[in-house]
Amino acid sequence: MKITDFIESVKPGIPKRYLLFMAAFAWTMAGGMLLYKGTAIIIRFNYFSWWRIILCATGGTLFYILLFSKISHKHVTRIINLKYKLPCMFSFFNIRSYAIMAVMITSGILLRKSGIISPQHLSILYITMGIPLFLSAFRFYYYGIRYHSLAATA
What we know:
Elements: H1 3-10, H2 16-44, H3 50-80, H4 95-114, H5 119-145, H6 147-153
Helix pairs in contact: 2-5, 3-5
């Protein structure tokens, strides 16, 4: 048995459609966690104000339109065009995206634990970044739900 055959036999491969749903779930969890943390800070410290909500919604929407929409589209296209019929269940991100995710998570934890940024401002950052992550998840859900009909027309 060749090493490549062995690796292929133990690889946790799943259909591309399910890979799209795994990506959707990951993006939903990341966005939801940031929205939850940001909202919890606002509630805990009584920071609620309409200008803060408008700032977060505007910033989050702009991040989605200018950056995250393109990133999520790139990932969907990459997943659909993977050469394997059953790609690895962790291939919903590429290596670069996993590295970026690790840096972002580490940065968020360090900012929160260090106290460099006040909770008031951290809540704005969390919500503003949670919105585009959460919105991007819907692209993965859409393509996962419509996978068979979209694949048939491609």
